[in-house]
Amino acid sequence: MPDTPPPGTPAVRRRAVLAAATAAAVPVLTAAAVTPASAAPPSATAASGAPAATAASGAPAAAAAHGKRPRALPGGGDLGPNVLVFDPSTPDIQARLDAVFRQQESAQFGTGRYALLFRPGTYHGLNAQLGFYTSIAGLGLSPDDTTVHGDVTVDAGWFGGNATQNFWRSAENLALVPASGTNRWAVAQAAPFRRMHVHGGLDLAPSGYGWASGGYIADSRIEGQVGPYSQQQWYTRDSAIGSWLNGVWNMVFSGVEGAPAQSFPAPPYTTLDTTPVSREKPFLYVDGRGGFRVFLPAKRTGARGVTWGKGTPRGSSLPLSRFYVARPGVSAATLNQALAQGLHLLLTPGVYHLDRPVRVNRAGTVVLGLGYATLIPDNGVTALKVADVDGVRLAGFLVDAGPVNSRTLLEIGPPGARRDHSADPTTVQDVFVRIGGAGAGRATTSMVVNNRHTIVDHTWVWRADHGEGVGWETNRADYGVVVNGDDVLATGLFVEHFNKYDVQWNGQRGRTIFFQNEKAYDAPDQAAIQNGPVKGYAAYKVGAGVTTHEGWGLGSYCFYNVDPTIVQHHGFAAPDVPGVKFHDLLVVSLGGQGQYEHVINDLGAPTSGTSTVPSTVVSYP
């Protein structure tokens, strides 16, 4: 099998250029293009039997202003019109899937948000094509409880066969029997494939093998071959695969049965036998009476393979009545009241505007989003703050910076947090951050991790390089992820385009398994990125006082298309001490638009002119 893409397959991506060239050809569909779920027959709508939660967006604030104690908020309730729930007897399932796809296929910066949920059973002849902000999931405790004889497809017809902008969509907790024997999942960032069982192969490239830039698989079993073809990088965690076809730049595996052997850089495989610590994402399922519950998987150490292969997975569950089921339009005050009452949060699909932070102060709190529920801080506040407590689980939502600069967008723990959370860490999973693209947005720092032992399991933190409100100062965002807490683990860290450091890691004993980065395209000149005597800010910077840190499979790319003469001294910067170690690093100049002088510190060869060929360092120091 080839270890490079098929002949003629380009590996370079130029999102900004291609986006501008394609935008005029892609129609934007309106909400009228899809039948609303509220008009669906009973078997295709969500119902729980619990009391309905009211929006009451201004009620708590108004009650407080009059000195009255706000009325207690109910738990449970309907999941809203943008959650479509199917069972095998639901009529016209394919037509409903197609209607959502027509609306969302090219709606990259639209406001539509959808979750497509399938009750346990067997479904035949379906092809669920997924567009932007669309999640599909089964509602069993195991993926094998919900079997689709058909496909869950992501392709790139909307973008001329280029899959590098296939963001913000997900598949979870389903068994697939692909119609052709191979399912196509041609995605880029923020598109997780979790708890999936594919009875066949998985193709990660678009039709025609055009450009692709993903991606993430976890807790999944693919019986056949996984074919990345043109995928530039990929991370697979705690899964099982039949075989793996090829690699372009950076393919990373941890805890994967059937993974290829360690061989970086040729082929570019970084393989860890186990994942040090993992705890799978919470997920919605139905119990034996048909009511909704949220399953909370247990923590694993030295993890390998799937969690669900031998019956019921380990963990606990909560009934929907323990959650405040939030709907778009609800206020931050109401969300905070629900949390103060001891409820968890289930964010149904849509956009939530916040005038104050959502505060998670109670140990064990779950904040779970469906269908890429999106939080926007309107007046420069932080969208969400977590206290220094055990066991918080944040999962499945997008934080979109508002037009007024926020000092931070997401804070995991307060400054100076010091408590030991090793027994029950906070997990941040499929939580994504965006600055610009959908409109003007600004933030000094996007995500700050202060709590010890936090697990950041798949995030894409992105300062937009295309869309609306984009420019070196227009969507200014200096820092992507700043880690101050000790003992933090990142599994699947995607951070791109920040004005200064994309990742700055100050905590001790940090670990990262897989990192993908592009430096900001739009730097106007060399002076704009000058970092004192150093040419440019590293993509991943380990603080000078750190004595222990380790990373595996990290890549940084540059594409300085405004000023191609810009030189970046290195992609990675770290103290030269025995306890700071890196394995399998690379830097790439995309088509010679800017160059790297070194890989890490002063080590590693410069990138090679206009050739898009990685410069690598296998081991540091």
UniProtKB/TrEMBL annotation:
Residues 1-39 form the signal peptide. PROSITE patterns: TAT. The keyword Iron does not apply. It comes from the Bacteria. Keywords: Signal. The keyword Ribosomal protein does not apply. This is Coagulation factor 5/8 type domain-containing protein. The lineage of its organism: Bacteria, Bacillati, Actinomycetota, Actinomycetes, Kitasatosporales.
